[in-house]
Design a protein that fits this description.
Strand content: under 5%
Radius of gyration: 16 Å
Number of helices: 5
Shape: globular
């Protein structure tokens, strides 16, 4: 079994050339369709299961929707020239309380 790196321990590099932006945007735009394709034939028990008391597949998908508001807010902050962006809620309160499963 592969040990996955925890989200907060991941390191991200932002060194892609600007010409990669259209590819990234296209990939992001296609995410809902890819998710739907992956889960359409999956049993609800699997989608709702919480392995090791962690988030279920449904909660992970819901989290993507929950954080979209933060992404939109940060984009507006960048476009308006702000030098400090809204902080993320690292407790994930919104997702934990949403009842996505």
């Amino acid at each position: 079994m592969v040990n996955q790196i925890k989200w907060m321990q991941r390191k991200f590099e932002f060194n892609s050339p600007p010409g990669m932006m259209p590819n990234l945007l296209e990939r992001m735009a296609g995410t809902p369709v890819r998710i739907e394709d992956m889960i359409t034939t999956t049993d609800d028990k699997i989608l709702s299961a919480k392995p090791d008391s962690k988030w279920s597949v449904k909660e992970h998908i819901g989290h993507l929707t929950d954080i979209e508001e933060l992404h939109e807010k940060r984009l507006q902050e960048i476009l308006s020239g702000k030098t400090e962006l809204t902080a993320a809620d690292m407790s994930n309160k919104k997702t934990n309380e949403a009842g996505h499963s």
